[in-house]
């Protein structure tokens, strides 16, 4: 799939598409995760507000642009790039879409002069934890929901020397 994949930043008119991709990707967890994933409560407005003025979203599409396959949000927090709502539609999973999104996020972080990228990953989704570990992410904090029904790892990847503006 990687050669047949195009990544692009979301334009202002793409927020409904970003929302649709997030809902489609997270729908399978409805009624499974306790508490329910916050992704399923997102709206176009809440997604736009999350990244407004400090980040954006990427959209993964087929090379010819005929189908949207995934998305991920990103924004700067202190001195790192936070990536959230990494979403790949079920039909495109296992084809390198998530990996391509995350590699592009690393490029965005380096280009912004940031040396670290972070994600939050629920422990009740061990395949997702393993995915990030394969990409070189490490857990650095273990956080519990207040009712202790589930927890998540804060994971990070140190990117080494960030690009300077002269690079």
UniProtKB/TrEMBL annotation:
CDD domains listed in its UniProt record: NAT_SF
Gene Ontology MF, one: acyltransferase activity, transferring groups other than amino-acyl groups
This protein's UniProt keywords: Acyltransferase, Ribonucleoprotein, Ribosomal protein, Transferase
Cross-referenced InterPro entries: Acyl_CoA_acyltransferase, Bact_Acetyltransf, GNAT_dom
Recorded GO CC terms: ribosome
Domain N-acetyltransferase intervals: 5-160
Gene3D superfamilies documented for this protein: 3.40.630.30
Pfam family membership, one: Acetyltransf_1
Stated name of the protein: Ribosomal protein S18 acetylase RimI-like enzyme
Source species taxonomy: Bacteria, Bacillati, Bacillota, Bacilli, Bacillales
